[in-house]
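Sequence and structure are no longer studied apart. To make this concrete, we show below a single chain and its fold as tokens.
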Amino acid sequence: MADFQKRDPDEVREMFSGVARRYDAINCAMCMGLDRLWRRALARAALDGLGAEPRIADFACGSGDVCIELARAHPSAKITGVDFCPQMLEIAAKKIAARRLGNRIELVGADCSSTPFESESFDALTISFGFRNFHDRQKSLSEINRILKPGGRLCILEVSRANRFFEGAQHIFMGSVVPLIAQIFGGRRQDYQYLAKTTFAYPRPEEIRLMLSSAGFSKTRVRKFAFGLVALTISEKV
């Protein structure tokens, strides 16, 4: 198993820097394009019921796809993308500029466990396939709670541990197929082998609920995709 807490965050940053140019292509290939549908569901969940000009943060924003999806889903939302990898932010900035969304999407380089934002700044916050790589998940959840407004919504789209029926297939797919896809698209096989290991070290839904509760969140609910291999967890700040 990969111990995310023992891996140097600088090594993780370097890993994502190395794969940044091929990140979108690899993700699309290994998810068979379904990641677009999942991001759409994530954006809808985050924006549901929010009024005019909500402020949304997207942590571990990577190449900016969730930020763009949020901007598309709400015509007046203000979005702030946060990531600790400069190379990812460079790609995100180009994509945002190409879509002329620079007036609505701001990008900030920061670690998600310690951000420069004032308390109670955001109406909702999203994380897409990044939470499992956070060095200190509990500290990051506390930081998220700090910057969300009371009643603010946290939406986490992440891999999920399959039930016993699909567990064997998940191990084969994540441990062998995904690294091979990454290699075909020019990524480093060992990087995606590490990411596969973080999937199987990721807490189960009941553990995530406890973590959220400890950080001051409630009303947690989970929506599953892809036979339970992907989960959208939605929770609210108390």
Summary: The chain has a mean pLDDT of 87. The first strand starts at residue 55 and ends at 59. The radius of gyration is 17 Å. The beta strands are 55-59, 78-83, 105-109, 122-128, 148-159, 217-225, 230-237.
